[in-house]
């Protein structure tokens, strides 16, 4: 065996056998290093495991209504999942996965998440449901600006004077259901 076989090829192919897999492996390793030193590091539980992530501002939004959740590429979280994210101070806050921004060449998944504000309770089919929701009232246009198509047109338009809750999909949730929530129980 020569130095070429023993050392060079092993070092060259440690991230993959072709250029794309080597580049992707290096990007994933860079993201792992980023997770170790970022000030935005958070942890969350998903599928009975604690996963590290980075929770960063969404497009210079300082209101902390929306954020980017950067996770490993091996983690696939469906839209509408509510995660209890533990910040650096040890506090838990519920965040809903809104959508995944597909960045094929990056070494991480970039989810857009929405911070849930109220815990909702309702009864349907003689069963009580508890679910998190984001309260949107008059004058709060942060969400309306964020949900747009690639052409710049809004996906929907709503009257700005209405009160609404944005919740994950639930097949038991019907139009005639009344929510119960306590005032001041925001997180």
Task: Based on the model shown, name its key terms.
alpha+beta, 6-stranded antiparallel barrel, 9 strands, 34% strand
Order of helices and strands: HHEEEEEEEEHE
Structural class comes to: alpha+beta
Number of strands: 9
What value does the Rg take, in angstroms? Answer: 21 Å
- Total helical segments: 3
> Termini distance?
63 Å
Uncertain ranges: none
The shape, in one word, is elongated
Share of β-strand residues: 25-35%
Q: Biggest sheet: strands, sense, closure?
A: 6 strands, antiparallel, barrel
Helix content bin: 10-25%
Order of strands across the main sheet: 1-2-3-6-5-4
> Average pLDDT, to the nearest integer?
79
Please tell me about this protein's structure.
By secondary structure, the chain is α+β, with helices and mostly antiparallel strands. The protein has a domain at 117-182. 18% of the residues lie in helices and 34% in strands. The chain has a 6-stranded antiparallel barrel. Strands 7-8-9 form a 3-stranded antiparallel beta sheet, with no helix packed on it. Strand 2 and strand 3 (66-71) form a beta hairpin. 16% of the residues are buried. The model has no long low-confidence stretch (mean pLDDT 79).
List the helices and strands and how they pair.
Layout: H1 3-12, H2 19-37, E1 41-46, E2 49-57, E3 66-71, E4 82-86, E5 92-101, E6 109-115, E7 118-124, E8 127-136, H3 142-146, E9 164-166
